[in-house]
Write the structure tokens for this entry.
Amino acid sequence: MFLPLVTSAADALARYEDFHSTGRLSQGLFHGSDEDGREIACALGVLGGDVDGPKKCPAAIMPRWLAQMVPGFFDRQRKDDAFDWGRRFYAALARCGGNVPFSVIHDWHANTVTVLGIEAAEKRGRDTAPHVALQALHQRALAGETIGADAWRPVLRNAYADAYAYAYANAYANANAYAYAYANANAYANANAYAYAYAYAGANAYAYAYAWKRLADGMVDALNRLPEGA
């Protein structure tokens, strides 16, 4: 059966819940078949048979910059956590009708990503100041202040350098996926690179999955802070 494309965030939630309840979700695979020949799909693939990447995600469901983040959130958590996260994620999108402003990114960084960075620095006995400074900038941006690239660059550079001190060099290879969403691509792409650096900082598989769960849950929390119907 070829999945028709959903046309609203409410329909996306219903589709996801159907795949979830019938055991047809799959990590790391947009579309496929299980041993019974039933169609299976990932968190984005459930949107329609033609959806084989974030670019195919309907804008009525979520903006592309958010769709770009879904595979990382969904595939890198433990399976049970990922499947539950997808349900809460689509419920949050349905609540706001798929209308997601980019301010959600500042909310996510201010209330989740930089908090994770501060905690990681404290655990390792490192200076938390670079992460506190970045948190403050995101808080100001979330409050509506326009902050120029010249203000972002040094703060991002300092925070990201500290993240790299104990993260893998390929912390977030796809950071430029967000470039089109901002006038200054490098400053904001690096903001997301900083976020994902922490997910790679775990010393074992459990810590890695837990970091991704924190990041993914934080995005749902940010979406739920939007006004209903947004």
Observations:
- The two ends are 34 Å apart (CA to CA).
